[in-house]
């Protein structure tokens, strides 16, 4: 699932980067912000209830929680997290595939 999500994200970023060259400089900042609000060094239970809603909009949250459950807590992840991350991954992949194939014909004009 992580590879499918990564390919989809990279297709979108690479297609948009052809048209907006400054996106290349913004990507590290966005990745840093996503990593700061992701539960890497803390668990989901450490976050107060009202703020926990913010995590659900972060696509990295689901991937990190799947890894935490498997590697740190030695348990299976809840099925709703697996299904949600699978949906996000496949949606990102297919949307990116459509966007990339439609924009592929004009890449040569902008490069």
Give your account of this protein's structure.
The protein is an all-alpha fold. 74% of the residues lie in helices and 0% in strands. α1 (2-19) runs parallel beside α5 and α4 crosses α5 (79-103). The chain is elongated. The mean pLDDT is 91.
Please bin the fraction of helical residues.
Answer: over 70%
- Give the SSE string: HHHHHH
Radius of gyration: 16 Å
End-to-end C-alpha gap: 31 Å
**Protein structure class:** mainly alpha
- Summed up, the helix count is 6
Q: How many DSSP-defined strands?
A: 0
Mean pLDDT: 91
Q: What gross morphology would you assign?
A: elongated
Largest beta-sheet details: none
Proportion of residues in β-strands? under 5%
Flag low-confidence runs: none
Identify the notable features of this structure and list them briefly.
6 helices, 0% strand, 111 residues, single chain, mainly alpha
Task: Give the SSE map.
Blueprint: H1 2-19, H2 23-36, H3 49-55, H4 59-72, H5 79-103, H6 107-110
Helix pairs in contact: 1-5, 4-5
